[in-house]
Specification:
heterodimer; A: about 60 residues; Rubrerythrin, domain 2; three-stranded antiparallel sheet; B: about 350 residues; alpha/beta; Rossmann fold; Dihydrodipicolinate Reductase, domain 2; 2 domains; seven-stranded parallel sheet; seven-stranded mixed sheet; oxidoreductase (chain B); AGPR_dimerisation_dom (chain B); NAD binding (chain B)
Chain lengths: ~60, ~350
Amino acid sequence: MSDVGVSEVRCPACEGDVEIDSSTRQFEIVECPDCRSELEVIGLSPMTLALAPEVDEDWGE
Amino acid sequence: MAADRLRVAVFGASGYVGGELLRLLLGHPQVEIAAATSTRYAGRPVGTVHPNLRGLTGLRFRSPEEMGGFDVVFLAAELQTAIKVGADLAKRNECLIDLSPAYRLRDPAVFERYYGTAHTAPELLGSFVSGHPEDNRAALRTARLVSVPGCMVIATLIALRPFAADDLVDGDVIVDCRIGSSGSGAAAERLNLHAERSGALRVFAPHGHRHEAEVCQASGLAVRMTATGVEAVRGAQVVCHVPLRRPLSEVEIRRLYRDAYADEPFVRVIAQRRGLYRLPEPKILIGSNFCDVGFSVTPDGRRVVAVAALDNLMKGSAGTGVQCLNIRMGWPERLGLAFAGLHPI
């Protein structure tokens, strides 16, 4: 088993807890387990998340 | 059969709710089904009417006379029968859990207004504890008489609870309910013919649905309800338009829901930004006792669209009935109910 640390970061969209492991790199995309937002890692020290740019879907419009 | 199992009976066991109760109770580790009644099918194996139960039990329907001495009776009969037998069942058995609409409303005048007929046992109204665990858990622990709310009521109360509890609602709440055909029961009326039902989006109650009175009674809110029958066998979904007293952000509303339901075993907050099932849908809840609840808020924060979904025969009826039983007996609330819904279906 690898020795990877995990930190909890608050989702900027819903304030849910997002677990980020220490191997995560800047600009990586992670997903909030609560609201399913795609989040971009914009800083590593401290670990900082922002909403990733969305590709809009066309639901029959 | 273990001697220490609870002896339960299902009165009105040939209907859809009765069948769902039998399915759940057959799998419940603390329960023995001592009787299942049906006037029409007395003497026949329960698998005759509920083919999903074939091979799982040798139980036969019995006639509903002399129903006394059980630890718990589930009453799953239609309204008038439930009113007729309720007092006797309450007197002759330790505990009665009613799933009919007979004893949900407390005020006889409100009952008459919504049901179009006077209640013939008004002295019993008000003596039943509402079988809505999310609001009434403490009272259910000692209740002898329990009345489980209607399916759309359960979904609506779960959707509205955080706003009602914090006095956040400003004005009438509009609730648009959609429900599958099993919600209209097992009677073979013309409206349930495949030719009439298939493909229909039938607004069968544009206003004044009976469940509206229950929601108003339980929540204290002014609620206006519309009900539509949709192309599904099971499932109910409510879309509630809630005007807010002050603007709330998405994060604040999510916090309200989290706080309200963090410890609830069968309520999940589902409001996602991605994926196929972003807001609650009955489709993935079929057969389960979960009620999913979610929301979207308008950009000005003044109006929330709260959505809740459940399986009308499970969390909307029989499942909640068994959940009430678990609470009443001091058993773990998930006992016999912990399974997920089906996917895909």
